[in-house]
Every structure is written in structure tokens, then in C-alpha cells.
Design goal:
Structural class of chain A: alpha+beta
Distance between the termini of chain A: 31 Å
Strand content of chain A: 15-25%
Radius of gyration of chain A: 24 Å
Number of helices of chain A: 10
Distance between the termini of chain B: 46 Å
Oligomer: heterodimer
Shape of chain A: elongated
Largest sheet of chain A: 7 strands, antiparallel
Structural class of chain B: alpha+beta
Chain lengths: 296, 332
């Protein structure tokens, strides 16, 4: 089973007639497919410390995590974004069997986003290097912290960080973060009624692929990608479905392409009912262009 | 990021404090200090500093296509959190440089426009706490407005007369100010169901001096500290107010967008680009290339990971590229 783990905003709400929808995932699927209905139990398994992994990311991704737009466009446009989760967490299985989400991570702690300007490529690889480079003339950082779960106690524990917020992200900042994190871990362990929040989800890629291909049979995500791309090329070359399938069957190079996915692309996605009809009208051409030229 | 989500028939619950540090003005004269709503929200010490003010800050999304009625601020609202003690579970703490357009949305009235505004840089410090639930309203342009109940404060700082190199954070502004080149202006916003509880900040605001310096930075930290104390120590007894917590404009799922995003991933990997390349497209080519705004970054992540590239900065080896290019060309 192919899975992928994605960080999300903690917001879970009602939308489009479905409850418990993980809002961060709305680009991936209709609301009813991205519900999460498990809750962490206050007893049972203890919190685990999340590995302090720095994830290089994009401004877009930071925005989708709920960080405010915080780049001044007048500054040097060469900037690097990273985020880091500092938290204690628990995994919870989804109770909704229909959903693309298999399990979720709930935690108490912080999500830290850092934007670094004027740093060279090696430096941006990790926070320590960034923190050290922040002291070097020319390097600059701006950071935001979003606390996750836990309530007002978290603000109290985070006081050393709050008073520090206006400066560069330095080695001292890193040490303060480490100190605050240890305090949080203690807090979480000693306080069973602290409420954790949703931080990330694990998605079942094959379930998603099956949905995207509208198939009754299992579909591997990779098979979805290449089969739809094949159909897209044929449509770009103005083949009808019948012509596309003929090309498919004629060449052993195309043995990994799924015929049913090609058919679904033409009939459902492009909306062409007749197998002999070529995709020539302007509206279809415009849609096909968007798909084929993506990334060029 | 936040605005008060609804006025309803109750007095609105925002206090604003500001101080102008225009060059040459050595007096600590308060500017544009306003409390929104009933004058009785002032305590006697701060009464001369507080004036009632009609505020556009509090508008609910009036042109929302199918927005449900945003709950009125008040104890009779069925969604109003139970308390005291109020269960605030989602604190936010941040300090960051912000773009002019984002700043404009935050409704710091005294900081908008005026002297040097086209060359100004903006910063925000904020500490707030919210309850768990999020209420979603859909605006006319399809973006989602997320409303939450909470309490908190936000300090807006505008600085100008700086070289663009120096503006990543407030520490740098202070350093520039020491060299006599920076001028600043500040405004504090507090929101809560009972703003009287934050009146301690009026004394603190008097400490904000005219010329921005390292001293000012300490005093801002002082204001932040006082406000943080109120939130963290007494917060459970302070009722919240409904605020527009954020705006979320995802590229909503459509079958076309899945194909576009997967196609982007295959093309991009075939050319040897990491997932971070998407940023460059989004920043520089969004106007020229129509497909850019259709991309779903999460779908791109799914495709990249599934094809074997989990880290956002992984790139294919030459051998991997050859295979990816072959896949990309199936049917070409």
C-alpha cells in the first residue's frame, strides 16, 4: 500500500455537507473523502517526541499550513523556507473507512516556520547552520511560531521564546527552543487533560488513485499517472478514444498503460461519449493544453 | 490574519492603541488610540485615551455567496464556548515581517498610508489563544473564511527610511534606527470578550518612545510580556470574541487539477527538478502560464513521493531521469 504523510493545519470543520473534514486537504479530494473521525485517547499510549527534522518547503506550503504571508517582497527575492515540528505526538487511526486518510498525528508543541534570506545553498539545509549563519553579516531570518494544542499553559511555557521573537533566528534561539520543548514534553506527560491538535495525516495513495481513475479495480498511483498521461498525449494529438486504444494495443512499449484508465479519461474527464469523436472543440483544446503544458 | 468576524448587536470588543514616531516629534503624544464599542469599556486610568469609534474592522463577509450567518458575539449564541473557565487550546505566537498587501488586511488604521508608506516595511507580533472549533464561511470568491473564538493581541509596526537589505526582522530595524535612518509607527490591537482585562497595556504603551532603538525593542518586548501574562494567567476567565482567524484559498479538487498536477510532477521530474521548483513557477510565472494557478502542491507531493522522491529538494540521478523521461513520453 502506497502512503504519503503530509503536514496539515489543525482545522477540522463542516463543509459541503460533510462533518469532520480536514480543510488542508481540500485540493486533493471532495470533502466526504477527507474526513477524520478518530480522537486521541487521554489514557493509553503515551506521547512520543517528534524527531526534530527540518523540512525544506515552499511559501505555498507554509501558507497551506496556516502561516501568515510573511515575506516582504522588497527584500532580496532569493529566500528559502523551512519548517520544523517541535512537539510530542500520538498517532490515531481514522474511524472513517471511506476516507483517504488512514491515520493522523495529534500533538502538543510548536510548528516553526523560518524564512532565510541571503543564505547560500549549503546553509539552508538545517536550522543549526541557519542559526549560525544568521550571525554572519548578510544573512537574515524571519520566523513564525504556531503553537499546537495544549492551551494557555503552552503560552506560559513558551515565554522565553516570546520575548525573543523580534530578532534573528540564532544559536541562542535554537537553545531556547530546545529548552521550551523539554518543558512541553514534561507538561504533556504530567497533564493528561491537555488537548492535542491535529498536525499531520497519512494518506492511502492507492485509494486515491482508484478514486481519481473512477475504477472498480485496484489502481497503483504510478499506473494512474502514466495511463492518464498517455491518454492526455493522444488527446493532444487529436486522437479519438478508438484511435488512442488502437495505438495502445499496437505497441508493446505501452504494456504498462491501463486501457480502462485511458477510456475513463476520454469518457468521464473529457466528457466525450462517442469512441470515434476527436477532441477538437476549443473548450476541450484549452483544457488539454493546461494539462499537457504543466511544467513547461 | 484575524479580524473580528461579526458585530451583531453587542458592543464590539476591540481596543486599539497607537503611537506615532514621526521624526522630530519628541513628545509622547498618543495618536489614534481608540476603543471600539461602549465607552464603559475604558477604565478610569485610560479613559482619556479611549474614544468610541465605528469600525469597518468588524464586518462579517457581507458579500459572501452562501455564508451561513456568522454567529453573533454574545452569550446567547449557541456556538459560544462554555465557560468560565474557557478552554483555549490553540495558541498562536509569532513575530514576522509582512508584505504591504497582507498588512492592509489587518486593519491597523493608523499605520496605513501617510508619510513614506510606499517605501515602508511592516512587522507584526502576535499572541493569541483560541477554542478548538472552527466555523467556516464561504466568500463570494470561493475562498474559505475561518472563524474561531479567541482572545489575544497583535502589535503592528511600520518602519521606513530603511535600506531593503535590513528588514528581515525587528532587531535589524532597531540597528538601522541606531544609525538614525529608521522611523517607525506602532499600533496595538487587543481582542477579547472583555477588553477591560487588558487595560494594563495603556501604561505599557506610554513606554514606547519616538525613535526606534534597541530600547524600543525592549519596550515592545515589555508590552508583549504584559499582554502575554494576561492571556496565559487569566485567559481562562476572559470570554472570547469571534474573529476571522484566517482566509484559506485552496485550489479546490477537480479531476482536471489532479491530471494537471500529476502531469506537472512527471514533466518536472523528467527535467531533473526538485519539488521546490514549484515555488519559482508560482512566484515568477503565475501570470504568463495559465496552468500555474491550477496546481495543487499536495498532489505534486503525492506524485513525487510515489515516483521515489520524498524530500522536497531531492532530484533524480541521470539514470533516474532517463527512466522518468521515458514514462513522460509514453504516448507522445
Amino acid at each position: 500500500m502506497g502512503t504519503v504523510s503530509i503536514p496539515v493545519m489543525s482545522h477540522v470543520g463542516e463543509i459541503g455537507g460533510s462533518k469532520d473534514v480536514v480543510l488542508s486537504l481540500l485540493e486533493l479530494a471532495p470533502p466526504e473523502k477527507i474526513r477524520f473521525t478518530g480522537r486521541p485517547s487521554s489514557n493509553g499510549s503515551p506521547y512520543q517526541k517528534i524527531d526534530l527534522k527540518v523540512v525544506n518547503t515552499s511559501v505555498q506550503a507554509l501558507a497551506s499550513l496556516g502561516f501568515a504571508e510573511f515575506v516582504s517582497t522588497k527584500v532580496d527575492s532569493k529566500f528559502f523556507c523551512s519548517y520544523m515540528d517541535l512537539a510530542v505526538s500520538k498517532k490515531v487511526k481514522n474511524q472513517d473507512a471511506d476516507s483517504f486518510i488512514t491515520e493522523a498525528v495529534f500533538g502538543i508543541g510548536f510548528r516553526l516556520a523560518i524564512i532565510a534570506f541571503n543564505m547560500n545553498a549549503e546553509v539552508k539545509a538545517n536550522f543549526s547552520a541557519m542559526a549560525a549563519a544568521g550571525k554572519i553579516k548578510g544573512g537574515m531570518t524571519s520566523y513564525q511560531m504556531v503553537a499546537i494544542g495544549g492551551g494557555l499553559d503552552v503560552i506560559t511555557k513558551a515565554r522565553p521564546l516570546i520575548t525573543n521573537l523580534s530578532g534573528d533566528f540564532t544559536v541562542e534561539t535554537l537553545e531556547t527552543i530546545g529548552f521550551v520543548e523539554a518543558q512541553l514534553a514534561e507538561l504533556a506527560i504530567s497533564n493528561a487533560d491537555l488537548i492535542p491538535q491535529l498536525m499531520g495525516v497519512t494518506l492511502d495513495l492507492d485509494k486515491m488513485a482508484k478514486f481519481y481513475a473512477n475504477s472498480k479495480d485496484p489502481v497503483a498511483y504510478k499506473s494512474l499517472i502514466v495511463s492518464q498521461h498517455f491518454a492526455l498525449w493522444r488527446a493532444f494529438h487529436k486522437n479519438s478514444l478508438e484511435e488512442a486504444l488502437s495505438v495502445l494495443k499496437s505497441n508493446p512499449d505501452f504494456s504498462e498503460i491501463r486501457q480502462d484508465i485511458v477510456q475513463d479519461y476520454y469518457t468521464r474527464i473529457l466528457g466525450i461519449a462517442e469512441a470515434k469523436k476527436r477532441p477538437e472543440e476549443k473548450k476541450l483544446r484549452d483544457r488539454i493544453d493546461l494539462m499537457i503544458y504543466a511544467g513547461t | 490574519m484575524w479580524e473580528i468576524a461579526s458585530l451583531g448587536s453587542d458592543p464590539s470588543k476591540v481596543m486599539k492603541f497607537g503611537r506615532s514616531n514621526a521624526a522630530g516629534n519628541a513628545d509622547l503624544t498618543p495618536v489614534a488610540i481608540a476603543a471600539v464599542g461602549s465607552g464603559s469599556s475604558a477604565n478610569s486610568a485610560g479613559a482619556d485615551l479611549l474614544q468610541p469609534l465605528m469600525s469597518g474592522l468588524l464586518a462579517a463577509p457581507s458579500n459572501a455567496a452562501d455564508a451561513p450567518a456568522v454567529a453573533p458575539v454574545g452569550q446567547d449564541d449557541p456556538n459560544f464556548p462554555k465557560g468560565p473557565p474557557y478552554k483555549y487550546t490553540s495558541p498562536t505566537i509569532s513575530s514576522y515581517a509582512i508584505s504591504a498587501s497582507a498588512m492592509a488586511k489587518l486593519d491597523f488604521g493608523s499605520l496605513g498610508g501617510g508619510e513614506g508608506s510606499s517605501e515602508a516595511f511592516f512587522f507584526v507580533c502576535e499572541v493569541a489563544a483560541f477554542t478548538d472549533d472552527v466555523y467556516i464561511a464561504r466568500a463570494a470568491d470561493e475562498s474559505l473564511l475561518l472563524n474561531k473564538y479567541g482572545i489575544g493581541f497583535r502589535i503592528g509596526i511600520k518602519a521606513w527610511g530603511l535600506e531593503s537589505k535590513m528588514t528581515a526582522n525587528l532587531g535589524m530595524v532597531a540597528a538601522a534606527a541606531e544609525l538614525n535612518v529608521a522611523q517607525t509607527q506602532m499600533e496595538v490591537q487587543v481582542f477579547a470578550g472583555d477588553v477591560k482585562r487588558f487595560s494594563a497595556v495603556t501604561d505599557a504603551v506610554k513606554l514606547l518612545t519616538t525613535k526606534f532603538s534597541a530600547e524600543t525593542l525592549k519596550n515592545i518586548a515589555g508590552v508583549v510580556s504584559i499582554l502575554t501574562d494576561v492571556v496565559s494567567k487569566d485567559g481562562a476567565t476572559i470570554p472570547p470574541v469571534l474573529v476571522k482567524y484566517g482566509e484559506f484559498k485552496p485550489n479546490l479538487y477537480t479531476p482536471d487539477r489532479i491530471v494537471i498536477s500529476n502531469s506537472y510532477a512527471l514533466e518536472s521530474l523528467g527535467r531533473g527538478n526538485s519539488r521546490q521548483n514549484l515555488d519559482a513557477w508560482l512566484a515568477h510565472d503565475a501570470g504568463r502560464k495559465k496552468w500555474v494557478k491550477e496546481i495543487g502542491p499536495q498532489i505534486v507531493q503525492c506524485a513525487y513521493e510515489n515516483l521515489g522522491f520524498a524530500n522536497s529538494n531531492s532530484v533524480p540521478t541521470d539514470a533516474e531521469r532517463t527512466e522518468l523521461w521515458r514514462l513522460r513520453n509514453l504516448g507522445a
